[in-house]
């Protein structure tokens, strides 16, 4: 049936005289995430097209609608509501969903960020800073938000750390009252940068210092909204371009009458973009705080436990014991985590040679980077970069 429908659409294109697929991209252009998804789609079309692409300005909270009178071949859309899904299904076009929402009765191919992976990055970021108290802010009515919150809370529970939850009401006074009630210092993970900004603004209104009393991390880093926060908001860099590339690749196969058997492609986030909203250490021990600051400043250099002790004299066994108790990992593991996070971002977002990335991330040789990276991710650096930019399934 699907192959016959695809063949029918191809015949219609030939009848029009162009033979070029018409694709509607129904993704918000008002966020960095949406613009990067669109960029991934455009990159695929540029290399594998041409496609007629229909894109219109679209805000993150605006309902998704098919352009009036549109009769095309394929749709890539962030489909999060049943009315939008019904409208899109009525077009009878090939569809790929780039929303984390799973709607019963609509079994389209789906490409989305893996919620548990973002939660793991957030938990690691906060635990590495020694925070004793945690919070999550998001709308639990949205299934993907609930999945991310549960993953974040479960990771913290494994470390015997409770996590408070807050659902935004749209009333700033409610957010102010919630952050005032929290035990400090507290680390708060927010679903997105707009919610993160609400939390930061509430803290400023309440006279609570960000990041020293409340650290804030957004579930996505937006190059405008995150930077516009005061202080600037840290965020998890999602692989939005890869989502667009993968969605376009899947859609092309469906339009050609060869849909992949696989239905879902969860995409791993790239890493944490650190700004001032998390630039703090919730550590009472001033000597440990000095050690952490030294590591943060010199992680890209050949720093070792010996070099740390030269700058911060104390008994090695005492330092290692206190460090593990406070941060839940060894000093070497913490240094490796910082270096790997930077390597992920550079591999995904630059064309730097592997040897230069190894040097910039503090690995003495590329072979050392490769062994460490494979041990942490199961992929070589080359495989990771290729996966982040993959256009083949």
Structure, explained:
- The structure is a single chain.
- A 6-stranded parallel β-sheet has the order 2-1-3-4-5-11. Strands 7-6-8-9-10-12 form a 6-stranded mixed β-sheet, sandwiched between helices.
- The chain is an alpha/beta fold.
- The protein has 3 domains: 2-112 and 240-268, Rossmann fold, CATH 3.40.50; 115-239 and 272-278, Rossmann fold (3-Layer(aba) Sandwich); 286-388, Arc Repressor Mutant, subunit A, CATH 1.10.10.60.
- The model has no long low-confidence stretch (mean pLDDT 88).
- The relative contact order is 0.11.
- The chain contains 16 helices and 12 strands.
Structural class: alpha/beta
Ends apart, CA distance between termini: 22 Å
Q: Mean pLDDT across all residues, rounded?
A: 88
> What's the arrangement of strands in the largest beta sheet?
2-1-3-4-5-11
**What CATH architecture of the largest domain would you give?**
3-Layer(aba) Sandwich
What's the CATH superfamily of the largest domain, by name?
A: Response regulator
CATH topology of the largest domain: Rossmann fold
In terms of per-residue confidence, which ranges show pLDDT below 50 for 5 or more consecutive residues? none
CATH class of the largest domain: Alpha Beta
- Helix amount: 40-55%
């Amino acid at each position: 049936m699907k192959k016959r429908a695809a063949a029918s659409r191809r015949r219609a294109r030939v009848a029009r005289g162009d033979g070029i697929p018409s694709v509607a991209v129904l993704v918000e252009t008002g966020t960095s995430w949406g613009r990067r998804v669109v960029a991934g789609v455009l990159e695929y079309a540029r290399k594998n097209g041409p496609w007629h692409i229909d894109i219109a300005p679209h805000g993150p909270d605006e309902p998704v609608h098919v352009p009036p009178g549109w009769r095309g071949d394929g749709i890539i859309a962030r489909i999060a509501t049943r009315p939008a899904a019904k409208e899109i299904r009525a077009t009878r076009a090939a569809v790929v969903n780039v929303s984390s929402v799973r709607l019963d009765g609509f079994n389209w191919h789906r490409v989305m960020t893996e919620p548990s992976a973002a939660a793991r990055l957030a938990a690691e970021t906060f635990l590495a800073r020694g925070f004793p108290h945690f919070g999550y802010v998001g709308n639990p009515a949205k299934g993907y938000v609930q999945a991310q919150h549960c993953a974040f809370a479960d990771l913290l529970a494994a470390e015997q750390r409770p996590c408070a939850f807050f659902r935004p009401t749209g009333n700033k006074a409610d957010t102010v009252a919630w952050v005032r009630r929290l035990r400090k210092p507290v680390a708060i993970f927010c679903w997105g940068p707009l919610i993160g900004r609400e939390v930061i603004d509430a803290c400023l209104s309440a006279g609570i210092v960000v990041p020293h009393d409340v650290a804030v991390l957004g579930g996505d880093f937006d190059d405008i909204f995150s930077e516009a926060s005061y202080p600037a908001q840290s965020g998890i860099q999602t692989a939005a371009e890869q989502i667009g590339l993968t969605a376009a690749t899947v859609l092309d196969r469906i339009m050609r009458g060869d849909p992949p058997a696989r239905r879902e492609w969860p995409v791993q986030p790239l890493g944490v973009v650190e700004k001032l909203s998390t630039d703090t250490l919730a550590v009472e021990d001033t000597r440990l705080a000095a050690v952490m600051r030294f590591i943060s400043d010199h992680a890209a250099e050949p720093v070792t436990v010996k070099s740390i002790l030269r700058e911060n004299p104390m008994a090695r066994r005492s330092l290692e014991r206190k460090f593990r108790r406070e941060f839940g990992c060894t000093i070497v593991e913490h240094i490796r985590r910082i270096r790997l996070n930077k390597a992920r971002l550079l591999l995904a977002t630059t064309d730097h040679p592997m040897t230069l990335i190894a040097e910039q991330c503090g690995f003495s040789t590329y072979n050392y980077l490769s062994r460490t990276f494979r041990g942490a991710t199961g992929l070589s650096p080359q495989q990771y970069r290729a996966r982040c930019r993959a256009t083949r399934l």
